[in-house]
Amino acid sequence: MIKPAQSYEQAIEFLFERINFERTPAADKQDFKLSRMRRLLEFLDHPQNRLPTVHIAGTKGKGSTAIMLTEMLSSAGYRTGLYTSPHVEAFEERMQIAGQRPTPDQIVDLVRRVQAAVDRCESAASPFSPTFFEVTTALAWLFFEMQRAEIVILEVGLGGRLDSTNVCSPIACVLTTISRDHTQLLGSTLTQIAHEKAGIVKLQIPVISGVQDREAQAVIAATCREQHAELWQLGQNFSYSHTAHACPKTGTTDSDCLPTSFGTVDVATPVERWPSMPLTLAGEHQAHNAAVALATIDKLRQLGWSVSREAARSGLANVRWPMRIEVLAQRPTVIIDAGHNWESISALGRTLEESFSSPEPGKSSPRRVLIFAATKDKDVVGIARQLLPRFDTVILTQYLKNPRAVSPKTLLRMIQSVSDVACHAASTPTEAWQLARRITTSQDLICVTGSFFIAAEMRELILRGD
Asked: In terms of CB atoms within 10 Å, which end of the chain has fewer, N or C?
């Protein structure tokens, strides 16, 4: 019998005591079973069935596309729930409605309700213990229902077909991009990975796809035919063009004065044209995400949801999303990016050249310093080969709040095997940041990337002023 949580601290402790594949990777697909999620939700009276949902899967771009959709729908007046993962600093970041996260008291109430259902799961005739992500997803649905959400934007945690979110009731399904990541679970080929991602497609539910790889596109198209689902495919049914803006030097480290405009995107869908829509996130890949989001808005409009041009434009202008090539400070320019796979690191590299490469008038090109940490199940050498030629100095470190980190000494051996770039090893993020500041001037650039976890830890300590 689970003792009901009496405080916020006890509630959070209960959640993080569950099996957590964000901290300890699953061994294989057998660790993921939708039957467990359905049973847990049965004991909660299936809140997911009463919440219209836009379900989003993809290798990268899920979170950015989700926040764009959320802001546009919110600007149109809808009480919009948003569910994403993982969190940066606090657990309740994972769920919000109308821009508001659950309060500590609400977390306690929600956890107590979920605990009662978990108790029933663990004492059933065929007992099982729900995982951290299963419990968190169920808790989010309870929160959205309690807060009277009119629509929910739901980001897949991992893959799609067997993800805990894949018991939702979607009104539209979105696939952002497909590339190689989590290959030990999703497969080593793009066809295999696309099959897992396209597993979110439901019978006669429209699909909006931003996937560009032809091999993956073929899987998505075949799945949509099987499910009699209308497909809007980027490059075939909708398109975009991007106008980039270089990141201006503002002469300040005040976050309220940091740049928030990184260009515009023109989007054409089967039913609408969206000229010069604002982009507050840097990079051509964010123009891609905005195109997918606007195509989704047009599909929702066809389904009866009312989103004006003004609401869409205002919503995109309001988008703020941490650790997506985020300019955290200037003089020196400090960029935090959660990139951790080939595609996201490639996008970071292109954006550095596109928006951050021009020296100020009369100045030489800025020196670039990379702070890099990585996770054990990632292609560290492949990522390094993309990153290292773009930097003058590399500082290798490790994140401290998750056991999956590669040690700086191991990283150093791996990096030295493929590059002769100047490298330093720092045992903690604090040491890495202090070293980076010592060796840079106000004209230089510091970039933190390699893992969501190092981005989160470095962001926190930089904002604290450490």
From this structure: N
Model pLDDT, residue 355: 86
* CATH 3.90.190.20 domain extents, the chain: 326-464
3-state secondary structure the chain: CCCCCCCHHHHHHHHHCCCCCCCCCCCCHHHCCHHHHHHHHHCCCCHHHHCCEEEEECCCCHHHHHHHHHHHHHHCCCCEEEECCCCCCCHHHHEEECCECCCHHHHHHHHHHHHHHHHHHHCCCCCCCCCHHHHHHHHHHHHHHHCCCCEEEEECCCCCCCCCCCCCCEEEEEECCCCCCCHHHHCCCHHHHHHHHHHHCCCCCCEEECCCCHHHHHHHHHHHHHCCCCEEEECCCEEEEEEECCCCCCCCCCHHHCCCCCEEEEEECCCCEEEEEECCCCCHHHHHHHHHHHHHHHHHHHCCCCCCHHHHHHHHHCCCCCCCCEEEECCCEEEECCCCCHHHHHHHHHHHHHHCCCCCCCCCCCCEEEEECCECCCCHHHHHHHHHHHCCEEEECCCCCCCCECCHHHHHHHHHCCCCCEEEECCCHHHHHHHHHHCCCCCCEEEEECCHHHHHHHHHHHHHCC
Six-digit token string for 161: 């077909």
Measuring CA to CA, which residue among 394, 444, 442, 437 is closest to residue 414?
Answer: 394
pLDDT score recorded for residue 250? 46
pTM: 0.92
The domain made up of 8-317 has a fold known as UDP-N-acetylmuramoyl-L-alanine:D-glutamate ligase (3.40.1190)
Parallel, antiparallel, or unpaired for β 273-278 and 263-268?
A: antiparallel
Residues of the chain with CATH 3.40.1190.10: 8-317
pLDDT of residue 29: 56
CATH homologous superfamily for the domain 326-464: Mur ligase, C-terminal domain (3.90.190.20)
pLDDT score of 19: 85
**Per-residue confidence band for 248, with pLDDT thresholds at 50, 70 and 90:** low
